[in-house]
Design goal:
- The protein is of the alpha/beta class.
- Helix 1 crosses helix 10.
- The chain is built from 10 helices and 5 strands; from the N terminus they run E-H-E-H-H-H-H-H-E-H-E-H-H-E-H.
- A 5-stranded parallel sheet has the order 2-3-1-4-5, with helices on both faces.
- Helix content is about 55%, strand content about 10%.
- The structure holds cytidine-5'-monophosphate.
- Cytidine-5'-monophosphate binds next to helix 2, helix 5 and helix 9.
- Cytidine-5'-monophosphate (C5P) binds next to helix 2, helix 5 and helix 9.
Length: about 200
């Protein structure tokens, strides 16, 4: 594959993007950026009283600690700061530089195939029903000892979907040339295999 082969993987929360992105990156030897962590890092600082736009302009690598950013409260805060155009604009260069790195890159998010990397060599839109996604997220949170109920997780998933899909700036949607993978009835292995196949077909 050519040096800057970029794979864009978009889709709603808990559809399997993260798992698929990591597996795809490992399979091809590409670097991986979970762009949701950038918005989560900004959202987490806003929960501490800071200004979203200022944080987005001064984000440091040490603010991006995946473990502390994976809570429901931070997820909701992330999707609220993600509607602010100046926040999105402040994060563009970092994402595009990552995408252009030699050796290939996988970026996952909501607007990678549509806005950040419209020229990406391969684009996937990974989705699943809200009920299936909520059940997966609930199991993850419960395993970490979180007290959220399944109903609460489903309500959060729906609220975040609506905010992400309905915003004016870079709404979540499949790029016209994206391969859509619905993981609702799929095993992880099957979803990863389908994704790798879709990417290989773009070589
Ligand atoms: O992917 P994750 O669930 O960690 O993303 C958290 C939030 O960050 C999303 O709900 C969305 O509002 C925002 N986001 C975004 N654009 C991206 C990645 C994430 O707006 N490329």
């Amino acid at each position: 594959m050519s040096a800057a082969f970029t794979v864009a993987i978009d889709g709603p929360a808990a559809a399997g993007k993260g798992t698929i992105s990591k597996a795809v990156a490992a399979h091809f030897g590409f670097a991986h950026l979970d762009t949701g962590l950038l918005y989560r890092a900004v959202g987490a600082q806003v929960l501490l009283g800071r200004d979203a736009v200022e944080v987005a302009h001064t984000l440091r690598a040490e603010d991006i600690d995946a473990d502390v950013l994976r809570t429901s409260a931070v997820a909701q805060a992330a999707s609220k700061v993600a509607v602010i155009p100046q926040v999105r604009a402040a994060l563009v260069d970092f994402q595009r530089s990552f995408a252009a790195r030699a050796g290939g890159a996988v970026l996952d998010g909501r607007d990678i195939g549509t806005v950040i990397c419209p020229e990406a060599a391969a684009k996937l839109f990974v989705t699943a029903t809200a009920e299936v996604r909520a059940a997966r997220r609930y199991a993850e949170l419960a395993a970490k000892g979180a007290a959220d109920s399944l109903d609460q997780v489903l309500a959060d998933v729906r609220a975040r979907d609506a905010r992400d899909a309905d915003r004016v700036e870079a709404p979540m949607r499949a790029a016209q040339d994206a391969v859509v993978i619905d993981t609702s009835g799929m095993s992880i292995d099957a979803a990863v295999a389908a994704s790798i196949q879709a990417i290989l077909s773009k070589r």
